[in-house]
Design a protein that fits this description.
Blueprint: E1 2-9, E2 43-47, H1 59-72, E3 81-83, H2 87-90, E4 102-106, E5 123-130, E6 135-138, E7 140-143, E8 149-150, E9 158-159, H3 160-171, H4 198-207, H5 213-216, E10 218-226, E11 236-241, E12 246-251, E13 257-263, E14 266-273, E15 296-297, E16 307-309, E17 314-322, E18 329-334, E19 337-339, E20 343-351, E21 358-360, E22 366-375, E23 378-385, E24 392-399, E25 406-416
Parallel strand pairs: 2-3, 2-4, 4-7, 8-9, 10-17, 19-25
Antiparallel strand pairs: 1-5, 5-6, 5-7, 10-13, 11-12, 11-14, 14-15, 14-16, 18-20, 20-23, 21-24, 22-23, 24-25
Helix pairs in contact: 1-3
């Protein structure tokens, strides 16, 4: 039996055929619980020759190719692409055919995917699969009717490479993550999500592993339960390394159980948070999601437990105990990136922000030089990024009391090198 699904960026879709799994990132699954994936590599793709009406020459094609190359370049994964450059194939626009995996810009609404009026979707990835999870075909359709595209994300334009990276991960069978600056976060941040973040890499490497993956990386398993001993279902569990970098995320299953996979050996702290912003239940295809609890660290918020991961092994974390829901909640932050050696002001938005008494960004190399509560819904942080700060995503945490109630913006600040690159 063949089933069709669509995934998109910027607008969430409710997909009844998908069931929940407790992975770092979220792999789409069929109605039978099988994870969607390509059964062989490389995936042959075609880039429609018309391209974007907003970008001259072949720069749009090159941006798509650069995104594919960043995913293909993950050394712990077998993900690979083969581009069919045959002229007759590149002229095709029949994205819903099962014999082509097409990247195409819809400049007039001809695809029918973006409705008759303005759409919030920058792009949509429709794909078909067998009930055993095997993907038959998949396409990426860019919404050129409602959005202006570019190769640098300048002004109000949308960066082609960022969107392509996100949508191609959908094409490979994945749903959204709650890591704010991961490629699979449902809102794309231009030039931050151009390349896969560690959370994206963990997913791609677990589903499409290279031969030494299982003996090179480790995982952490555990449960999330309330103080009343009830399972916290659909909670996001975040693993951060000793540098404070967000490394991988997981969602809990119907029993509150989770496994965070794709971890480099070393020490990690874990915290669980509800999907109450900036990622919301409508952004992911989980069966049941509880949000009536507060953010909490493994071992408690005062002195979080450090879990040691060994290559080829699954470390038992035990239970993360979460308390009642809190009023304080961060739902967004901007800007999301800063270069090494730079000072930057970051605006955080949410609810009951004015109840915060402390703020922290775990890890080394990022110093909070000032903090100001502007209103009940907004605060400003002044950050200084050292010249040697580790590259990657950090989490911003507001505390009502130090070691007490808190709210986290997972991956809310992304450290780039002095040239604006996210890789070493």
């Amino acid at each position: 039996m063949r089933t069709v699904n669509t995934r998109l960026v910027l607008v969430a879709a409710a997909v009844a055929l998908l069931a929940s799994v407790a992975y770092p990132w979220l792999q789409n699954t069929t109605g039978t619980g099988a994870g969607t994936r390509w059964t062989s590599m490389p995936v042959t793709i075609v880039i429609n020759s018309a391209g974007s009406a907003d970008v001259p020459g072949t720069a749009d094609d090159d941006a798509i190719r650069a995104a594919l190359a960043s995913l293909q370049g993950i050394t712990s994964s077998t993900v690979a692409f083969n581009e069919n450059t045959n002229a007759s194939e590149r002229a095709r626009t029949d994205y819903n055919s099962s014999n082509i995996n097409l990247y195409v810009f819809d400049e007039t609404g001809w695809s029918g995917l973006f409705g008759s009026g303005g759409s919030g979707a920058v792009a949509i990835t429709p794909y078909s699969f067998q009930l055993n999870g095997s993907i038959i075909s998949a396409d990426v359709v860019f919404n050129g009717r409602d959005y202006t595209f570019s190769t640098d994300g300048s002004g109000s334009s949308v960066d082609i490479r960022s969107v392509t990276t996100h949508e191609t991960e959908h094409l490979l069978g994945f749903d959204h993550t709650g890591d704010y600056t991961a490629s699979l976060f449902p809102i794309t941040f231009d030039n931050v999500t151009r390349s896969p973040a560690p959370d994206d890499v963990a997913g791609l490497s677990t589903i499409y592993p290279e031969s030494n993956y299982s003996s090179t990386f480790g995982s952490i398993s555990g449960t999330v339960r309330t103080t009343a001993a009830s399972a916290a279902r659909g909670a996001q569990v975040v693993a951060a390394n000793t540098d404070g970098m967000v490394t991988a995320t997981a969602y809990t299953d119907a029993n509150g159980a989770f496994t965070v996979r794709g971890l480099v050996p070393g020490g990690y702290t874990l915290y669980a948070e509800p999907l109450n912003g900036p990622l919301y239940p409508g952004n992911v295809s989980l069966d049941t999601i509880d949000t009536n609890f507060g953010t909490a660290y493994l071992g408690g918020n005062t002195t979080p437990t450090v879990v040691t991961v060994t290559a080829g092994q699954t470390a038992a974390a035990g239970q993360i105990t979460v308390g009642a829901a809190t009023s304080i909640n961060i739902t967004s932050g901007t800007p999301v990136r800063a270069n090494r050696g730079q000072s930057v002001s970051v605006w955080l938005s949410g609810t009951a922000i004015n109840t915060a008494t402390n703020v922290s960004i775990p890890g080394n190399g990022v110093t909070i030089s000032g903090a100001q509560i502007l209103s009940a819904s907004q605060a400003r942080l002044d950050l200084t990024i050292s010249a040697s700060a580790p590259l990657g995503s950090r989490t911003m945490i507001l505390w009502v009391t130090n070691g007490g109630d808190c709210t986290a913006l997972t991956g809310g600040q992304h450290v780039l090198d002095a040239s604006g690159n996210s890789e070493s």
